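task queued by scheduler; priority normal; single chain, no ligands, no partner chains; default sampling; output format set to structure tokens
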Amino acid sequence: MGGRLARVFRSFNVESRARREISKEKPTPAPRHPIARTDPLADHPEIQKEISRKNDRLLTLLKDVYVESRDPPVQVKDGCGEHLPCKPEEKRLTKLGHLEDLDVKKVSKGRISIVEAVTLLNNHKLHPQIWTAEKIAMEYSLELKEVNSLLEFFIPFTVQEFPKETRKAI
């Protein structure tokens, strides 16, 4: 209620207030300092001439300079820190459904792709006796605790179509 009231006062007579502000005479700007307006080099033509003149001795010295640069050899790092032991990351092939082109082909163990997540949530919703948390964890190489959290907090949408008679009652 307060927002509506505030909006009424804000929009009251907006056009005439805007015209009044626009038609006001603009204030004149403050005068600038006299030094800021003048060009310091305009008073000294010999400095201008010295700036625009070429120095032949410096040009010849510049032509004698030859710079050759070489990049240092590139060292390839294998992604492991110097003090941390390297452990190769295990990958698994994804269980692709009907969206093969949209999904990634390989995923690290302990992770799932978006298509797999939607598929396993839908399977669990349709057949909870068959697709239990233990079976999903074993099938997708996940931890049981993470699968339980996934099944608890993520629920796929369902499309419900109401008959025409009940639409009027709703």
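post-processing summary
- The two ends are 27 Å apart (CA to CA).
- The longest helix spans residues 114-126.
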